[in-house]
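Entry 12.
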Amino acid sequence: MHSEKNPYSLTIECKDIILREYQLEDLNELHELTWQPEIYEFLPGWNVEKEVRLDWLKNYEIPENNQFLKLVEEGLDVGDLRLRLGIVLKETGEFIGWCCSGIKDDLPAPNREIMYGISKEHRSKGYTTQAVQGIIQYLFDNTEIKELNAIVLLENGASNRVIQKSDFKFVGEIEIDDEIYNHYKIHKIDF
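Predicted 3D structure (tokens):
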């Protein structure tokens, strides 16, 4: 689906949620979500000042999404570009989280990963699993990507369950920045 302001917009419909690219209007909700202790505990560095988040949205995240989607539309390789999608409730239109894909330099190649975060008010409802499965389907159906990674802190039980429910296979533990993570992979041929 294409919008008038961006000819390369993306909407992925799932059962209860919609995945769509970040918009400037998401600033307040995205900023508030990244400051929830339940989120920055597992995603340190995401809780930045609102002015920094606005700069990232305007100058990096939205333009890179546009580049990614343009390349997909043209049937070209997305390379190292990231795709950042908001998780929006179908019923209310509320921005409740994000699901993204990008290169994780700390992983051995091919090192494209899936990452996500969801509001504490919307956990344990299956929304994150829907988002992860939606972005995997999109990437495998529309890009040259053949393998995806996920890394999850050992103590993040909910996130480990989301990854396992999304058919990622456990590879082993990996240490990154003095933290131990479970490392998972999923291959296009197995999805």
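Annotation: The CA atoms of residues 34 and 44 lie 9 Å apart. Helices lie at 27-34, 37-40, 50-73, 127-142, 157-165.
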